[in-house]
Design brief:
The structure holds two protein chains of two kinds.
Chain A: H1 2-23, H2 26-52, H3 62-90, H4 92-98, H5 103-136, H6 142-168, H7 172-197, H8 206-225, H9 227-239, H10 243-271
Helix pairs in contact in A: 1-5, 2-3, 2-5, 3-5, 3-6, 3-7, 5-6, 5-10, 6-7, 6-9, 6-10, 7-8, 8-9, 9-10
Chain B: E1 3-5, E2 8-11, E3 23-27, H1 34-41, E4 53-54, E5 57-58, H2 63-67, E6 70-73, H3 85-95, H4 101-111, H5 127-139, E7 145-149, H6 157-172, E8 176-180, H7 184-190, E9 193-198, E10 201-207, H8 208-215, E11 219-225, H9 232-237, E12 242-248, E13 251-256, H10 263-272, E14 277-283, H11 287-297, H12 304-307
Parallel strand pairs in B: 3-8, 3-9, 6-7, 7-8
Antiparallel strand pairs in B: 1-2, 4-5, 9-10, 11-13, 11-14, 12-13
Classes of the chains: A mainly alpha, B alpha/beta.
């Protein structure tokens, strides 16, 4: 009985959010922006091929596709970060919980709502790439479809990350700030890692050696905590055409999403539904 | 049940029992613990101590199923402003698995005079309309218990009457109400039994008339006479049950004890002194008077049975 009611409520909450999400004014702009960036990348590849007669990258459609997925996921993570906290801010969360709604059905409802929106965006993105393939004659390879399938799991992790942020914050502005600050920290650490990798470390000073150690350690943490690290690992797996790494990426993203959703339910319960 | 927030005891050893079909008025000044109690009844706050049974079942055992039998209207109306009233109610009808939802929605909207505005955005509704919409939402699934917190606070006199009539109509259908309100005159008109909570403690709980009788320390009578004959005041003041008497032109304000109705004795005394009575009115103690007396004096009027 409990499971049936929960499933019923989860479906309803996700359907309601999905409907209003699709009707919202922001989504078309985000999709257009993601596809525009991808189109520019594809056009760059076409231009390079035209000028030099050869292409430096093996899969000219897969990278632009991952970039589009990255942009769409970023938007959905932000939307996820606002999902709960905005409902709480407006008081509508409390009204929902007067009825047969509990934290599990609510969190999963909001999660599936965003995942469904991503599915629609993903389908439209795939159509765009199929059309681009017809125009440019760049092949849609097996790796593209692998990336397509993987992106769904990556998006699940990214959305769960956003929902987690929403479950631990009190106000809408707090959720936005926390999300952006975390993103900046993740990117900052990863960029520092990249820049240090180009530094000559044969005879580093004590300070530099310590700095490298700290950044390497933080980088390892970020590689598990940041949702976009899963995207980059997935891209590597697809690029290397390694089935094992690909399957591992799917599993990692699934576990990441599950852990964050569990944590979201825990913190959501602690925080309560009242304003 | 008891609810503590760190140092603050919001609700202390509260023991409430509401019968099926009863309309229970839950009264208390601001910060008395009413909303905390309601939140605990809805499972939105967990009692620090104690348990809650609804419909004979412990709330924590199956809150989802139990909450499907409850309709709630709280003081603040948090609605989805971007939806039309019809879509808003359809969503909740589906949430509560209401059969034939459109028919039920239209019937209820008609009862609160909102049918013609069903396709308007909720955001465009006035405060009173939002209150009525919340009441419709609470009634959609034909709940066994309705919990109302300040149900008429935002309404104009017409709206108040509509909601009152709706409550009375639903009472006749055997629905149980738990109403918390500051508008004591409305509680008086609709509730069978009341509980008064103050500083988290339930001070009094009884049927309306019994509660008022318990609080009333003296009865007040206003007697209008044709001419104030010189012997009237003396004749009345000599009656053993009269505690105080005051002359106001053609009127006598008489305070007696509350043991019995002394109107016939007073009439005889006035007639014996040569007076002719034009009217006699006994002042009824209102719920408001009772409420003020109980909360100001911190009077505990719980029966032994309840306090057990």
């Amino acid at each position: 009985m409990k499971a049936r009611v929960r499933w019923h409520v989860t479906k309803l909450i996700s359907q309601r959010g999905f409907g209003s999400g699709l009707k919202g004014p922001v989504l078309p702009f985000v999709l257009a922006f993601a596809l525009l960036i991808s189109a520019l990348m594809i056009a760059g590849n076409v231009g390079q091929l035209g000028q030099e007669g050869l292409l430096a990258i093996a899969r000219p459609m897969t990278y632009p596709f991952f970039v589009a997925v990255g942009i769409l996921s970023f938007y959905l993570a932000l939307a996820g970060a606002l999902a709960i906290v905005r409902d709480r801010d407006r008081g509508t969360l409390e009204t929902l919980f007067y009825g047969p709604v509990d934290s599990v059905s609510y969190i999963f409802g909001r999660f599936f709502e965003h995942l469904l929106i991503f599915a629609v965006l993903l389908a439209l993105t795939a159509v765009f790439f199929l059309i681009s393939s017809l125009i440019t004659h760049f092949a849609i390879t097996v790796q593209f479809w692998q990336a397509f399938f993987l992106s769904f799991f990556i998006a699940a992790g990214v959305i769960a990350f956003g929902i987690f942020i929403s479950s631990i914050t009190k106000r809408t502005i707090g959720a936005v700030v926390l999300f952006l600050v975390l993103m900046l920290i993740f990117v900052g650490i990863q960029l520092t890692q990249v820049s240090l990798s180009g530094t000559d470390l044969t005879n580093p000073s004590a300070g530099l050696a310590l700095g490298v150690k700290v950044v390497t350690f933080l980088g390892k943490i970020v590689s598990w905590v940041s949702p976009f690290s899963y995207l980059s690992r997935g891209l590597d797996a697809v690029d290397l055409a390694s089935v094992g790494r690909y399957l591992l990426s799917l599993l990692e993203a699934t576990i990441y999403a599950a852990v964050l959703l569990g944590a979201s339910i825990y913190f959501f319960r602690r925080r309560g539904v009242r304003r | 049940m008891t609810k503590r927030y760190e140092e603050l005891e919001a609700v202390v050893d509260l023991n409430l029992h509401v019968e099926r079909g009863e309309t229970y008025g839950f009264l208390g000044p601001n910060g008395a613990g009413k909303t905390t109690t309601i939140m605990m009844l809805l499972g939105l706050e967990r009692p620090t101590e104690g348990k809650i049974w609804l419909f004979g079942q412990e709330l924590s055992s199956d809150p989802l199923t139990i909450k499907q039998k409850i309709g709630v209207v709280l003081e603040h109306q948090y609605l989805y402003d971007e939806m039309t009233a019809m879509d808003y109610l359809r969503f909740f009808a589906r949430l509560y698995e209401v059969e034939n939802p459109d028919h039920r929605i239209q019937e209820l909207l008609d009862r609160v005079q909102l049918l013609s505005r069903r396709d308007d955005l909720v955001g465009a509704y006035s405060r009173g309309m939002r209150q009525k919409l919340s009441i419709v939402r609470a009634l959609l699934h034909d709940p066994q218990l309705l919990i109302l917190d300040e149900p008429v606070s935002a309404l104009d006199p017409y709206g108040i009457k509509e909601v009152r009539d709706l409550i009375i109509e639903e009472q006749s259908r055997g629905r149980t109400f738990f109403i918390s309100s500051h508008i004591l005159s409305e509680i008086e008109k609709t509730c069978n039994r009341v509980g008064i909570i103050h500083k988290g403690v339930l001070l009094a709980e009884d049927e309306m008339e019994s509660l008022k009788a318990k609080v009333q320390e003296e009865r007040e009578l206003t007697v209008e006479v044709e001419t104030m004959e010189p012997g009237i005041e003396e004749a009345v003041s000599q009656l053993p049950f009269v505690k105080e008497i005051e002359l106001l032109a053609q009127k006598l304000l008489i305070k007696t004890d509350t043991q019995q109705d002394y109107r016939s004795q007073i009439s005889r005394a006035i007639a014996g002194a040569g007076g002719t009575i034009l009217s006699m009115q006994a002042k009824e103690l209102s719920l408001e008077d009772a409420f003020v007396t109980i909360t100001e004096k911190n009077l505990s009027l719980l029966t032994e049975e309840v306090s057990k």
